[in-house]
Please model this.
Amino acid sequence: MSTLKTNLDQHIDPSNKIPEISLMQGFWAVLKRDVITAFRQRSDMINPVVFFLMVVTMMPLGISPESKSLSFLAPGLLWVIALLATLLSLDSLFRSDYEDGSLEQVILSPQSLYFMVIAKVLSHWLTTGLPLTFVAPLLGVLLALPAEGYLPLLASLLLGTVTLSLVGAIGAALTVSLRKGGLLLSLIIMPLYVPVLIFGASCVRMAVEGFPIGGLLAILGAFCAVAIVLAPLAIAGALRMSVEA
Amino acid sequence: MNWQWFHRLGSPRWFYEKTSRWSPWVGTLALITMAVGVMWGLGFAPEDSKQGNSYRIIFIHVPAAFLALAGYYVMAIAGAVGLIWRMKLSFMVMKCAAPIGAVLTFISLVTGAVWGKPTWGTWWVWDARITSMLILFFLYLGVIALQGAYQSRDLSNKSSAILSLVGMINIPIIYKSVDWWFTLHQPATLKFTGPSSIDPSMAYPLLIMIFGFYCLYAWLLMMWTRLEILEQEQKTNWVKELLLTGSIKNSA
Model:
């Protein structure tokens, strides 16, 4: 009897149990994994930046190489192209996780999907939005952006791309179960990007024209804060729906 | 509290039977009010001192724009009810509200362009309200495109409900941003609080037209939803009975 008991004890030995994972540990685990897989599959990370560079190169060819007209258009162009580059990167946000089943595991895990989604979107931003932000001033040189515009461009993109990633992830989650979701994703998300584009591009333009931009950055920050709170709800709901089907 | 009435609302059959009685009344009301409004507005309301007769397009333009915006909220709220209480009927309403709203948005854009030609001298101006309406039109198109993309009806319903809810939260933000961005449009003429800058002789036909458009919208939505019910419930006995004999014996 006593041997049986010890055997049983061995089987339910507390050290054999699946370790309890706290919310923060889960968050960091998802974030770390996604960033590492992004680095291992670099094309998803580099392609948006290359796209950004290429479209910016098209602009002088299509409009005019004169620095006067380019510098007038630069704030808006840089923002529009950064927005399009983000849109292109969105389709792969949940795609591979959906296909190999790891998305289902994240949904089944005891941690709140809300925070896991934030980790996933944060890793998307770290690997696409952030590189785009840091490449933008370089492309500003190509488009003859006046000197006063660089810091505002950096600041507005830094705040704006977080919102773009969060809002875009809603579309990515809605279309993840569709085989050809790419174009549809752009169609449903682009109208929602309008406010960010307006304030982001105006921020750079106002700075170039010598106006204070604190208020505009504050509004971009407010968009970002609202998106962080509300967008994960919609993303989590859409992911549950896509995986259940 | 007794919730039976609420759950009965979700039954397509109940809706179908009730609306067979209501829809002729709503349709007639819409026709009469719109006929009165159009005749009054186009024939009897005085000419505008600056814009001449071209202002008369507001009798179509303003009600269409009102309903275009309200229609998005109808669609989003129907979607939310469907998501929360899993009501089949409310998803049907949401599905039917999308094309109606898109057409109304399109009408308000086209009538706006027709009015802009004699007034501003151009068909299209990048003005705040026109741009917001165009973006609203895109939002509708997005919802319609998403609905059409799915094979499964359940997925299509849920995903377009989520998208229209996201859009609903975004619409005020989009409106405010576009408003801030630029404005050429004359400030709102019809105000419910404070004195409005429109003369009563023009305001009454306009209000009648707005009421008429609301009735028309309700009627259209009812008729489309009835059609959708027949299509989605075609395998049920009551629809078979209705289509074969023209009436249902045991009413719900």
About this structure: The radius of gyration of chain B is 21 Å. Chain B is about 75% helix and 0% strand.
